[in-house]
Amino acid sequence: MFKSLADAVRFLSIHEVKSANSGHLGMPLGMADCLTALFKNCLVFDPSHPEWPNRDRFVMSGGHGSAALYALLYLTGYKGITLDDLKNFRKLGSKATGHPEYDPSCGIEITTGPLGQGIANAVGMAIEERLLNARFGNDCINHYTYVTVGDGDLMEGISHEASAIAEHLSLGHLIVLFDDNNVTIDGTLDVSSSEQVLKRYESYGWQVLTADGYSEKDIVEAIELAKGDKRPSIIACKTKIGYGSLNEGKPKAHSGIMSDEDIIQMQQKFDWHYKPFEIPEYIEKTWRVIGQRNHDLCEKWYQTQSEKYGASEFEFTPELRNVFRSIKKEYFVSRPFIATRNSSKEVISKITQVSNLLVSGSADLGSSTGCLSADLKPISKMDFSGNYIHYGIREHAMGAIMNGIVAGKKIRAFAGTFLSFCDYMRPAIRMSALMNIPTIFVFSHDSIGVGEDGPTHQPVEQLASLRAIPNLNVFRPADAMETMECWEQALKSKCPSVLVLTRQNVLSVRFCGRTNLCEKGGYFLYEDSTKKAQHVNLISTGSEVAIALEVKKMLNDRDISANLASIPCWKIFDEQSEEYKQQILGDGLRVGIEASNGFGWEKYLGDNSLFFGVNNFGKSGSCLENYNYFGLTSQNITDGILKKLEESSYDKNRN
């Protein structure tokens, strides 16, 4: 019977790809038995309660094998995945997309995307399980995380970073099923790798096991051994890519459409004589029974544990609201002259004291980014009751691990590094935006203001590149007050956020404090009510807002009216009404001021405009020297504006 169950997964996958005329069959054919053994015997889940908090998590890191996942979800009875979805695999509107896309209500725990992300996501899920276990107890949260990986996932450097963290934290509830088939797209494994993967995992300190990928007994016994060990485990399942097909064991089995001839020979080989997408009733009923085998356990959990567990999602509580009110009052009085990374640190310190569902961290830069303070307690393999994760120098994994933590909807994770290093984390940032999960990325050292570290550490293009990612809030606050308000917005947001913070101290530019002015993305910091012939609209973000304020004063001294708008978050500002946006941007000469390369500013500035920024990589010099070198000074900007106004007046008179 086991073979028939696995063959149902195998042939549904074949016809999904055939129907789509596109897809990857190598993994679904090769791993169908391993996956069947897992779902049939070991995985704790209940399709009638797909988001049961204590369910086991299953991640398919190699998302190209998605046809098998959809087959399993349909067969076990998830209502969100229908047979029509399978028939429309990879077609517009189908939930059976080319790679799994995050939808826990359908059993899809994460969007893995690029190879290697999935195993790091799984590490995050295993960390989340331990964090919640420490907060709610064994009876409430005590589940496992399973992840399938291939050679491609394990070649990607992110797998090394994530696997090292998993052992360091002794994530014994993490079990990796390695599709060990010795093949990649370009050829057999030896064309690109001489690595001994299992010895590598032994060196991490993982439990390393092997199993025949086509033996239910072997696979289940290995999983039980893994569950009995306090270390994370990897099970090398010996398989053949494209198992059963004419291209079995060959690189070409990875992807492509199976010919009618090949399908016929496979039907004969596996004694499967049914029409496309037809599943014999006795097999389908057996799969449905498998899907319901944990139903009573799930119902008991909801009867006894759901009240203790509370709301399924992180909430912006009244306690958090009071924290922000208190900080706002403090800043309104003290008007601190501090770096925004330091005001962010104050916010982090206070919000983590009132919510044990907020977890900070950093890539070995806790003090530099403001993500670590004396009030935060690091987690360790012996104690997960803390609220700070030492990720080490592992930005690639850090971002993906945070996504794995946040995908569970209970814990809000944030962590920091330097803005120039955000490129390490770009795949994870993009995946968080694609999934619409509220991971928070904290980036300090935001500009040429970094100073003597030089151009390698001075970001000039990163702001534009992050703003180009859809569904991502990129906050660049001007001072302590704006930093607090941006943090408040990030915690309230349902989409991911980036906080971009200064290393250097900045002036407090805000005098009013009762309302969160950043909630619209941009606002008038100072609106000039005078009506003069010459009018300027200064538009800025971050530390340059203080420079813009000096420019405003210098223009006013010359009897030129000037509005000053701060736009800490472009995405939120863009979501406002056209009337509001035009009011803030104004109809006079528009002047953009930001220590970036200026890409994207054209949508705000238009034709009659000036932009003062950084037109090349930075320089190794002090903050002040760099700003002088690139002309980001109040005097230089004022001179440029006066020249532009003179030219405009000359052209107007000439016409």
SSE topology sketch:
Layout: H1 2-20, H2 26-42, E1 57-60, H3 66-76, H4 83-87, H5 117-136, E2 145-149, H6 151-155, H7 157-168, E3 174-180, E4 183-184, E5 187-188, H8 197-204, E6 207-212, H9 216-227, E7 233-238, H10 260-269, H11 281-292, H12 295-304, H13 306-309, H14 318-334, H15 340-354, E8 358-362, H16 366-369, E9 388-390, H17 395-406, E10 412-418, H18 426-435, E11 440-444, H19 462-467, E12 473-475, H20 480-492, E13 497-500, E14 523-526, E15 535-540, H21 544-557, E16 561-566, H22 570-574, H23 578-585, E17 589-593, H24 602-605, E18 609-612, H25 623-629, H26 634-654
Parallel strand pairs: 1-2, 2-3, 3-7, 6-7, 8-9, 8-10, 10-11, 11-13, 12-13, 15-16, 15-17, 17-18
Antiparallel strand pairs: 4-5, 14-16
Structural account:
With 655 residues, the protein is an alpha/beta fold. It folds into 3 domains: 2-307, Rossmann fold, CATH 3.40.50.970; 318-500, Rossmann fold (3-Layer(aba) Sandwich), CATH 3.40.50; 517-654, Rossmann fold, CATH 3.40.50.920. It is built from 26 helices and 18 strands. It has a 6-stranded parallel β-sheet, sandwiched between helices. The protein is elongated. The model has no long low-confidence stretch (mean pLDDT 95).
